[in-house]
Design brief:
The protein has helices at residues 2-19, 25-52, 68-71, 91-127, 134-160, and strands spanning 59-61, 86-88. By secondary structure, it is mainly α.
Amino acid sequence: MTFGLGMLSIVQWLVDLERRPPRTRSLLNIERVQGWFMLGFYPLDTLYYMIKHDVIPAAIPVPFTRAPALESLKAPSPSPPRENRRVPLEPLALTLWSTRCWAVYTILQLFHLKEDRKLLIMRQKALGKDKNHIQEREELTQRWSSWRNDLIVNLAHLPMT
């Protein structure tokens, strides 16, 4: 199931991020926030999908509403018995919030790309016009190409979010 694998990969990403942080503090903070928003995106999107396809009901039972010890001290309320209480899950709200999480991730990715661009320019200047670094220049060319592709992909995702 996508939910489990998606959540696992996001958790692994966040753990790895703390073990081996990016080169700048800005990139670290951007990726941390992206990870947390993706942890919101996956369960909300999965719940929406499962409700829309009748895999789970659109309302879930509430396991308890009050502390059981205090329940006997209060006067009986006209609310339904605990067994019948359910919390409705609105598919529209779920998809709206999951899309908002994805939008934050996408916008932050554009800031990430801006930081990456700064690092690529610094690396390019450091290499200068020295012809001895052929392999490093080829790698830098590939990184610029990857950066452009990522920019195009994220700009394409932006209207969808």
